[in-house]
Input
Amino acid sequence: MKKIIDTIKNIFKIEELRTRLTYTFLLVIIYRLGCQIVLPGIDGYTLVELSKNADNSGLVGLLNMFSGGAFSSASIFALGVMPYISASIVVQLLGIFVPYFRKLQMEGESGRRKLNQLTRYLTIAILLIQAPAYMMSLPHQDVPVQAFFGLGVPASWFSASTMVSMLILIAGSMFVMWLGERITDRGIGNGISLIIMIGIVARLPLALTAEIGQKLTTTNGGLLFIIIEFVIWFFVLAAAIALVQAVRKVPVQYAKRIIGNRQYGGTNFLPLKINAAGVMPIIFAQALMMLPMLFAGVSPTLASMFSDYTGFWYNLVFGILVVLFTYFYTAITVNPQMISEELKKNGGFVPGVKPGKKTMEYLDSIMSKVTLPGSIFLAFIAIMPAFARMAGVNPQFASFFGGTSLLITVGVVLDTLQQIEGYLLMRHYDGLMKTGRLTGRSGM
Output
């Protein structure tokens, strides 16, 4: 306990770190306040009450999770950062298939600024589609007419209420994106990821309260079930941390050079992450699992089979899709050819492997081998909420037993703590751990 207190004191002794943490906290407060402001003409309280009883599984639940509950309550931040994330994914995919975008990716800082600008433009284009679609979908989501007042129910694409709300939604989403960029530049951690994580964690107290209240009302060992749930949750958290941090270290030898009075080079390690794809495979798989619902009229049996989120076939197909998308997204994000070229350019080589093509093939072989257990483990984490729901856990709390909620929270917390530890070590203070350095998703 004394170690924790001393570490907290050391954090606030560093002026720059203290300023960054305060700035981040203030922007997060602004974001959460904005999530409580409802669009004009809509009774947000009625929508919130409906969302408590709704099934938050699938893509709609994912959108609501990423927006911190703002999606279901028709907040001015209802669209959140999902349009920006979608635009970022599209730009990243274009970097593989379009030479112009591939060239920008290799131009360093100037190329990154151009890609960020293109991502912002694409975000606006996506918002111009999503904002009216969101407004026009509200009256068709079993929302009572009493939820709409003042401006009335959106009647058409070009009605006054729809146009005003569309502009507010677009401006709100761009403002959230701006908050994320400011946190990245002047705060602590990755701003966009931090905003998503805050939205997820904001739902945890209510989910935990509902779960404890539900279990304590049962007479057959309610308190014992709560203890067992927390023990299992602890081990699931430990497994998620292991998945985020696990790397395969490839030894790399650099030619020794003497610059001034210091010697550079020697043996180093190239960390290849077991789960290089992060949570993207789960997001892609969840989006794809919604397709069978579109054919409900053609094949009701198929639609009902894939509408049961705790069913065997749903989770089997979901797990297989997570494994496949893990391989797909890893192939996009990890480029063995580029890594081998960078090693050759910097005078590095893998011992026993020729530089160039042989190194590329060697790294590609290692990534294929480590991605298999990583993808299977990721699929298991993805379907854990279904097991939790089958065991009687409240659906709201069950989402924290795995899936995107758990992985995003663990990854962002580790990244943020890694940056804080960097400031501590830079000022010659002790790190956050007694043994070794703390590593996050981007840790080396």
Remarks:
- The mean pLDDT is 79.
- The beta strands are 247-259, 262-273, 348-349.
